[in-house]
Amino acid sequence: MNSLILHGRRLVEFQKCFKLRFAADPLLNASAFSNSFSSASAAADISLRDGRKGQNFTVSYLVDSLGLTPKLAQSISRKVSFEDKGSPDSVLSLFRSHGFTNSQICDIITDYPQLLIADAEKSLAPKLQFLQSRGASRSELTEILTKVPK
Fold it and tell me: Which of 23, 87, 108, 120 could be bridged to 149 by S-S, CB 3.0 to 4.6 A?
């Protein structure tokens, strides 16, 4: 506890000293502050661009492959993002091979977008095969998953 108080006093003294120095030479400190702010801003812009790159790819992929509206694709990309089409393509081809229409796939992805980044062969295919082994027809399978994708 004592060390926290001591550290707190040092912080207050530093703040007082910094304010005094800033008041003594505002032009020098303003340019230093401006330079550090612009470099921090540039670093933030780079990380935002990298994040947007994946998000933009996700949006364009959803619009091109599923025919979603850009607004809906943007909304989905806030929940899931990917930078290549390997996993999403395998998920879509798995659904299509089990008789799902694009409309049904859109409904599923809209409700549960995380399916696009799931492993189609290790995670989704066994579940679909299990439902079929229990007697679910293709039409029942598509109806069940469209209504309850989780």
Answer: 108
DSSP state letter for 111: H
- Label residue 103 exposed, middle or buried (CB < 10 Å: 0-12, 13-18, 19+): exposed
CA distance 27 to 91: 59
Give the pair of three-digit tokens for residue 99.
Answer: 């008789």
Please say whether the beta carbons of 90 and 109 come within 8 A: no
Please name the residues in contact with 132: beta carbons below 8 A apart, sequence gap of 6 or more. Answer: 141
Residue 149 dihedral angles phi and psi, to the nearest 5°: -70, -25
Contact 124, 118 (CB under 8 A): yes
| C-alpha dihedral sign at 51, 76, 126, 98 | negative
Using an 8 Å Cβ cutoff, are 96 and 72 in contact?
Answer: no
pTM above 0.85, yes or no: no
Task: Look up residue 44 and give its two tokens.
Answer: 């933030």
